[in-house]
Amino acid sequence: MPVAIITGASKGLGRALAEALAGRGWDLVLDARTAEVLKETAAALSGHGGGVTALPGDVTDAAHRSELVAAARAFGGVDLLVNNASALGAEPLARLEALPVDGLRRALEVNVVAALGLVQEALPLLRASEAGTVIAVSSDAAAEAYETWGGYGASKAALDHLAAVLGEEEPRLRVWAVDPGDMATDLYAAAVPDDEDPRPDPASVVPAFLQLLDERPASGRYGAPSLLEGR
Questions:
Q1: Within 10 Å of residue 109's Cβ, how many Cβ atoms?
Q2: Cis omega before residue 193 (within 30°)?
Q3: How far apart (Å, rounded) are the C-alpha atoms in residues 231 and 216?
Q4: What is the tens place of the pLDDT at every residue in 169-193?
Q5: 203 pLDDT band (50/70/90 cuts)?
Q6: Annotated catalytic, 188?
Q7: Residue 135's Cα: distance from chain center in Å?
Q8: CA 223 to CA 26: how far, in whole Å?
Q9: Choosing from 146, 152, 188, 222, which is the catalytic residue?
């Protein structure tokens, strides 16, 4: 069975994608900071019959990243790495004049540095896979200027660029930065708590990710809404 590592997998998009892959028979290594919620997620997904290893921890911890890759190795390797764990930098979001520098530093550590560290740790196994793939979960804030989204957007723009360079450096892999579009997630609620407009459930964009895995287009940046419109 193919093996995926998914960070930030206890809820939201991470959980929705993990559930879809579990339904396809994938073995999964799941990460999140909240142990109890991650345990509940793993228990639910194990009902699909595939292997599920849940490892609570912080992706900024190098030892935790090594644990994730070791767990995937125990399943047989790494075919897919999804860097989905994210930090906002401020909750709720703030204008740049008030953005805490420590918050920006945390966003960069989680969204960029830890993502690269996990790629580096998993790269030998990804190279050994016939379909080695890295997905960097991006945001439209990485490409568009929205008031108060500067710190988060800057971190996602940096992640996009790392993904683009990785795609050039590792032509045998597929490396996709994917903007999932608007979703109803805890992250968005923490970012803009006063926004009560309805947003799509994260599960609604998962077909776009599965389309990428099925069709394996060239490495690059993709928007889930555009992929879904083109089906």
A1: 17
A2: no
A3: 15
A4: 999 999 999 999 999 999 999 999 9
A5: very high
A6: no
A7: 7
A8: 24
A9: 152
